[in-house]
Amino acid sequence: MHTVWVRLNAVVFFSLSVLLTLALLASFTSHPSILGDNGNPSSPLSPSIKTLKLNSLRSLRPHGSVDRALFSLDISADFNPAFHWNVKQLFVFICAEFSTPSNPLNQVVLWDKIIEAKDVDKIIDEKNSIIKYSLISQGTDLRGVDVTLKMYWDTMPITSTMSMGVGDVVGKFTLPNDYVSKAEKGKVDDKTKRRKRKD
Amino acid sequence: MIAMLKDIVNKQIAELKKLWDNKAELLFQLLNLAMIVFSALMIWKGLMFLTKSESPVVVVLSGSMEPAFQRGDILFLNNQENPIRIGEIVVFKIKDRDIPIVHRVLKVHENAEGEVELLTKGDNNRIDDRSLYAPGQLWLKREDILGRAVGTLRYVGMVTIMLNDYPMLKYVLVGLMGLFVLTNKEG
Lengths: 199, 187
Prior knowledge:
heterodimer, A: four-stranded antiparallel sheet, about 15% helix, B: alpha+beta, about 20% strand, elongated
């Protein structure tokens, strides 16, 4: 009887199923485990990170009940390889990992950048660039702490599941044993390790 | 066009009248309707069980995570036990606030007992989320997190946003759907 409605219903339902199937297929064919990129640094789809290290410490001071460190970094990485047809954007960030007596694990983001698929420039090359978010601990316990810098990239697909990768180039340094204010330039024991990427 | 609509309305009314006279048929169609409602409920509860999240699917309501997520995207959440780590996109709830927020984890502090304290920030916001938290709250705890975002579907949530903005639309739509299920002979 209700031919108009029955037909409309059929058309809408069918097109929705087609869309859903296409989305699932797209998601499946570009899934990290199918393309061989499980955040694995030796995969051809992972970005090439060349430099990630401390340039100079600007200050390490107590702010009330917490310690706060400010410094600059040298960053150089090429994110072109990480883009394929089903990538909308990468959220690239540098995280400082350290442990204190009260917290065995602290992860603090120091710097981040969004690289969209439509951006022409997918290369990060920054010298002596001051961190966006200062390194703040939960207590006054940053003096003499070993800090590890790691670069992560969160892949945001057009349709699929999200995945996160971490680079194998890590920057390591130790914060000084005494507070350092902006006036005097602090000397930092720079133990930046750079491992050669094996391709 | 109007004549066609009138025709459809008249036919629907006729169908309803016929249905009212035939009680067995009416019962059957009502059961049909109930089955659809309960299937939807079962799928939702099943997802809740699988993802261990009290709301496995959420709609993005603000532009604070652009360009990653836009208003109207839907997100699939997973709230399995494994610890929340840096850079993950989480959905969290603040006390005395109805609407959950989708933002990225900016800081993780984990003590010796394995309890985490988290600070979040929207990719598109200039500052972290402290001002969004409850008064005096500095950190999010694990139990504030509804789940981490694992996947996204674009635009689908637009329907939800429209239904939220125009509550009348909700009743009209649900009413119409119920009517058609009742009067549909093919089921």
